[in-house]
Structure prediction request, 301 residues.
Amino acid sequence: MFSGMLFIFAPLIVGYLIPLKQPRHVHTVNTLTMRLVMVILVLMGLSLAGLDNLGQHISTILHFAATFFICIGAANLLALPILDKWMPTQTQGHQYKLTLRGMMSESGKLIGAVATGLIVGLLWQQDLSWVDAASEGILLLLLLLIGIQLRNSGMTLKQIILNKRGLMIAALVVATSLPGGLLAAWWLGIPYHHGLAMASGFGWYSLAGILMGDGLGPVYGGASFILELGRELVAIMMIPILIRRYPLTAIGYGGATAMDFTLPIIQSTGGIRCVPTAIVSGFILSLLVPVLMLFFLSLGG
Prediction:
């Protein structure tokens, strides 16, 4: 049961064991990771183009993404405000200076990569049977690089353990997302372990879409990509509104992106005191995405 999981998970473990001492090496890994993500997303678009009855599949993708988005998001937002009441967090009234256009530019590039692959595949009209094998090979290298990134993110075990708010946010996001995934799976009539895997993306749309696509095919991969991308875009708009009154809710809804993409918004609107909590919660959730997703995908046999 676990052979496929171990095969894919091994590069992540190996990468996590590799320390980098030179900043230029870290920069090289970050750059290469982003480029590989773009390549795999183009291949995801090609896979979608190779599907029969593409229009019907796109309808299914959007239906899956919307159902999971509602179930998981509702579960998160019902529980996270309780954490704000239990652990009040002081924020600072910084002015929101970041533009929505600027924050969405990177998301637009990734959407464009999938769209490019889809358009090329539809126009090319060639055999696309090689796409899955190519995606899996690049995925193994990508997981190796992600493992290196996590090891060299600057987070120590002591920093993680001492930040109780960050730990609690991550634990609550996981504890509410998984039941939300089960509810969505029941509603859609799909296997429950598929629902749990879909619920384990925590906002990391590029990796989540890639892993789901590799494990269950382009329909699930596309749905996971749209689901997590939607979470990030909603977080961008919600954080400035929620963070003064519900700072932990705002950080938690950002999921794994709280340590990178949405971190500037958190700092800009909530102040510097929110930053350690955001980084710790985002780091833990980022670490759990491949672990939980690969585990639940392995349950299919």
In short: The chain is about 80% helix and 0% strand. The two ends are 5 Å apart (CA to CA). The domain at 3-298 is CATH 1.20.1530 (Na+/H+ antiporter like fold). The chain has one domain: 3-298.
